[in-house]
Amino acid sequence: MELAAAKLKFIEAWGKIGSEWGINRTMAQVHALLLISPEALTTEEIMENLSISRGNANMTLRDLIGWGLIEKQHKAGERKEYFFADKDVWNIARQVAKERKKRELEPVLKVLNELSAVTGNEKDPELITFKKSIADINKLANNVDKTLETMLKAEENWFWGSILKVFK
Amino acid sequence: MELAAAKLKFIEAWGKIGSEWGINRTMAQVHALLLISPEALTTEEIMENLSISRGNANMTLRDLIGWGLIEKQHKAGERKEYFFADKDVWNIARQVAKERKKRELEPVLKVLNELSAVTGNEKDPELITFKKSIADINKLANNVDKTLETMLKAEENWFWGSILKVFK
DNA sequence: ATAAACTTTCAATAATTTTTGAAAGTTTAA
DNA sequence: TTAAACTTTCAAAAATTATTGAAAGTTTAT
């Protein structure tokens, strides 16, 4: 396969993955484009490359910066802003894990905690089932939380080394 | 907090989590409802409880069965179908992991493999960057795949025991 | 101070996803 | 076979989410 075709295919695939994981297609595609680009690109170049509007490009780039996945770069003597992606895939995974933990897991843990305090007739099967479910989910969520916490601090080789060794 | 209020809050929260993870809100809410219900419920009861239409309930229940998260049950002497959710949270996590692995991760691994075979001028920075990105993503995806594979086979206590011990 | 170069905003529009509900289909019992 | 009880389908409508593009805003150089 030729590079040009492969690039298109990668951008498409990354966009699809993104949308399956609740990240909007365009955002994932812009990220893909920057990920495989050796040079930082301008808004203009991104718009053209992906056939998206200026407004869309601007918002998407802003979001990607918010996720910590790309950064702005300024070139000496130029007014234009350039954007480039962190190419370290482990950093990307960690960054995504970090943001989703903060944005999603933590609020869930908070709600689960509140729900643990439900009151009522302790003989009521409805209450018994409810409490058991909440307790189980709570336990799972806490284990996930701890594992992510470790992942965030860990180096890639150490992390996978440890996990895969245990599972051999 | 009273049980009735807690149930509503849980259904809402589970729905929100679902939609953040690309599962549609209603599907997650129906799952939540069945998860905290000690008895199997009919389509009718689910419709009423969540204020959704018959068509929606039917499709959603079908999807949940497809994900292996709920099952049909028949009660002796009754024509109606009852639905109930597996209450084992570890099974749920495994089931979701299994389906997403099959539906999403495996196709991605396939595409990444094809993209590894890209050809071109080996001195071209574009090609070098592309190949490096693909190789790195490939490695990460394979590690995730192996870990999920282990998770699918594992008992909950063993799994978390192993992971959390390593990370202590 | 002005204008060119560039970035951001946001109301309107488009695209996508979800939901409805009535009609069609199926199963069971008599 | 008929009809009641129940389930499934799917075209149309509603809701949600993403995108556009022109106008407003900002920064820099002169």
UniProtKB/TrEMBL annotation, chains A, B:
Keyword annotations: DNA-binding, Transcription, Transcription regulation
Pfam families in alphabetical order: TrmB (PF01978)
MF GO annotations: DNA binding; DNA-binding transcription factor activity
InterPro entries, per database record: HTH-GbsR_regulator (IPR052362), MJ1563 (IPR026282), Tscrpt_reg_TrmB_N (IPR002831), WH-like_DNA-bd_sf (IPR036388), WH_DNA-bd_sf (IPR036390)
SUPFAM superfamilies to which the protein is assigned, alphabetical: Winged helix' DNA-binding domain
Statement: the UniProt record of this protein carries the keyword Transcription: yes
Span of domain Transcription regulator TrmB N-terminal: 22-83
Recorded family membership: Belongs to the GbsR family.
Protein name per UniProt: HTH-type transcriptional regulator
Organism of derivation: Pedobacter petrophilus
